[in-house]
């Protein structure tokens, strides 16, 4: 009986051990499957959060596009009326104060009246020689003045002994033309190179609003050998240095008279139409190489400013594309509600 029970017990325990072994073999696979599902669940949660963030950004983008559309309409309205603004500014800037009649105590006017001459000095040295006249009166000096059209802050002067002295002599008004407290002097040698830009565009809207034609140059130095003698003019060149100015042919070369009075040097007007900037190269003085200093106390310009008669261009921009406006642009393409194109999209 005892032997029977032992055999029976052994027979009963053996299947149990086999079953436990099979369960332990299946457990790692099940755990891996569960981990995989957990990872998928975490990815789905992250995708849900990203989708919510994307939806919020799309709503913000829609609001910004609506604002852009309103702003575009406002800009179009302003541009449609901009030509009137330019015309008003041009009319205001072209007004020059009326010159006063010369007073009886003016020595220049009194001398003209007594001597009965016109105060003109002519230089007949050829086509490229300067036609100079001594300016004795206030009226001819203010006529056709380009003072208000000079961009003073952008004037550059090479080889000036004192920085900013080139700007100071150009910035003098006609009432200050005889003032010698502010003088431009050369530094290393007798040569000076000045760049004079003219203003004919608005800072808020960089388009040309007018055209400048140069008539003459007003110059005052002194009657010493330091007075400039040879002046070369270059039209619309902002890239010149002394080497380039010496090598390139000038637009016009002028020979300046030796005088302590304000002298008006006429230029060939046909050569200086549409003048954006002017470069002045004072190549030599009256010392014939003995003096290394060239001195200038006043520099002015005369000419005319003409308003450009051009209307503003109004452009309409499409802030957001409308798919209905672009149907059948590509044959065989279907455009859905989202404006997406493709073959047989099935939207």
Automatic annotation (TrEMBL):
<feature type="domain" description="PITH">
    <location>
        <begin position="135"/>
        <end position="321"/>
    </location>
</feature>
<dbReference type="Pfam" id="PF08654">
    <property type="entry name" value="DASH_Dad2"/>
</dbReference>
<feature type="compositionally biased region" description="Polar residues">
    <location>
        <begin position="1"/>
        <end position="13"/>
    </location>
</feature>
<dbReference type="InterPro" id="IPR045099">
    <property type="entry name" value="PITH1-like"/>
</dbReference>
<dbReference type="InterPro" id="IPR013963">
    <property type="entry name" value="DASH_Dad2"/>
</dbReference>
<dbReference type="InterPro" id="IPR008979">
    <property type="entry name" value="Galactose-bd-like_sf"/>
</dbReference>
<feature type="region of interest" description="Disordered">
    <location>
        <begin position="1"/>
        <end position="28"/>
    </location>
</feature>
<feature type="compositionally biased region" description="Basic and acidic residues">
    <location>
        <begin position="101"/>
        <end position="124"/>
    </location>
</feature>
<keyword id="KW-0175">Coiled coil</keyword>
<protein>
    <recommendedName>
        <fullName>PITH domain-containing protein</fullName>
    </recommendedName>
</protein>
<feature type="coiled-coil region">
    <location>
        <begin position="44"/>
        <end position="71"/>
    </location>
</feature>
<feature type="compositionally biased region" description="Low complexity">
    <location>
        <begin position="14"/>
        <end position="28"/>
    </location>
</feature>
<dbReference type="InterPro" id="IPR010400">
    <property type="entry name" value="PITH_dom"/>
</dbReference>
<dbReference type="Pfam" id="PF06201">
    <property type="entry name" value="PITH"/>
</dbReference>
<dbReference type="InterPro" id="IPR037047">
    <property type="entry name" value="PITH_dom_sf"/>
</dbReference>
<comment type="similarity">
    <text>Belongs to the PITHD1 family.</text>
</comment>
<feature type="region of interest" description="Disordered">
    <location>
        <begin position="96"/>
        <end position="126"/>
    </location>
</feature>
């Amino acid at each position: 009986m005892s032997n029977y029970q032992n055999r029976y017990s052994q027979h009963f325990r053996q299947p149990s051990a086999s079953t436990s072994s099979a369960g332990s073999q299946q457990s790692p696979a099940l755990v891996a499957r569960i981990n995989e599902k957990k990872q998928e669940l975490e990815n789905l949660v992250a995708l849900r959060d990203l989708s919510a963030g994307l939806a919020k950004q799309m709503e913000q983008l829609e609001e910004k596009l609506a604002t852009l559309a309103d702003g575009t309409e406002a800009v179009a309205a302003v541009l449609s009326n901009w030509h009137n603004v330019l015309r008003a500014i041009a009319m205001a800037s072209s007004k020059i104060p009326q010159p006063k009649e010369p007073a009886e105590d003016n020595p220049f006017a009194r001398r003209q009246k007594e001597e009965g001459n016109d105060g003109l000095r002519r230089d007949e040295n050829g086509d490229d020689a300067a036609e100079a006249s001594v300016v004795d009166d206030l009226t001819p000096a203010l006529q056709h003045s380009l003072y208000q059209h000079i961009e003073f802050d952008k004037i550059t002067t090479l080889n000036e002994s004192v920085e900013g002295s080139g700007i100071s002599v150009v910035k003098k008004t006609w009432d200050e033309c005889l003032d010698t407290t502010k003088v431009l002097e050369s530094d290393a040698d007798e040569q000076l190179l000045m760049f004079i830009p003219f203003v004919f565009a608005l800072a808020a809207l960089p388009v040309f609003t007018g055209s400048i034609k140069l008539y003459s140059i007003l110059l005052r130095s002194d009657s010493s050998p330091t007075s400039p003698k040879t002046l070369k003019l270059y039209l619309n060149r902002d890239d010149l240095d002394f080497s380039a100015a010496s090598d390139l042919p000038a637009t016009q070369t002028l020979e300046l008279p030796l005088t302590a009075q304000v002298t008006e040097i006429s230029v060939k007007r046909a050569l200086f139409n549409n003048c954006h900037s002017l470069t002045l190269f004072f190549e030599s003085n009256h010392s014939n190489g003995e003096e290394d200093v060239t001195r200038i106390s006043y520099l002015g310009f005369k000419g005319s400013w003409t308003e450009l008669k051009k209307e503003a261009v109004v452009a309409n921009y499409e802030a957001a594309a409308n798919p209905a406006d672009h149907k059948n642009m590509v044959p065989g393409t279907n455009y859905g509600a989202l404006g997406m194109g493709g073959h047989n999209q099935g939207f």
